[in-house]
Design brief:
This protein is of the alpha+beta class. The chain has a single domain, classed as 2-Layer Sandwich (GTP Cyclohydrolase I, domain 2). The protein has 4 helices and 4 strands, in the order βαβαααββ. It has a 4-stranded antiparallel beta sheet with strand order 1-2-3-4. The longest helix is centred in the middle third of the chain and has 15 residues.
Length: 123
């Protein structure tokens, strides 16, 4: 298989109410999201036309809806929802990698964030 091109959106930040603890669900917190969209961008590179690529402003909107549209107990489930929504909406995306970071996760220790990575391939 030919090597795919990649569009990346790094560190999109949303305020949402995900978590297994009731405080997380009522107080909310910041969630940082990265996505890698693996697709064939040959036509876009040649045409320089937005219709031949994946519109990353629309990708951001789909991400935002997935993050704030429904509460999840686990960031694993949130990452899966983001990946599924993007694959459903953008047929040019063949493979997607989603990373969800949760800064200030309620654990007994000091760390920058907890991160989950989910990878899905079309078909």
């Amino acid at each position: 298989m030919k090597k795919l091109d990649i569009i990346r959106l790094h560190n999109a930040v949303f305020y949402a109410y995900h978590g297994a603890l009731s405080d997380e669900q009522s107080l909310g917190g910041k969630f940082q999201i990265d996505v890698e969209l693996h697709c064939n961008l040959t036509a876009a590179r040649k045409s320089d036309n937005l219709n031949d690529t994946v519109n990353y402003e629309k990708v951001f909107s789909v991400m935002q809806h997935a993050v704030v549209g429904r509460k999840h107990f686990l960031i694993e489930s949130l990452a899966e929802a983001i990946a599924a929504a993007i694959l459903k909406e953008f047929k040019r995306v063949i493979k997607i990698v989603v990373r969800v970071r949760k800064p200030g996760a309620p654990i007994h220790g000091v760390l920058d964030y907890i991160e989950v990575e989910v990878e899905k391939t079309r078909g």
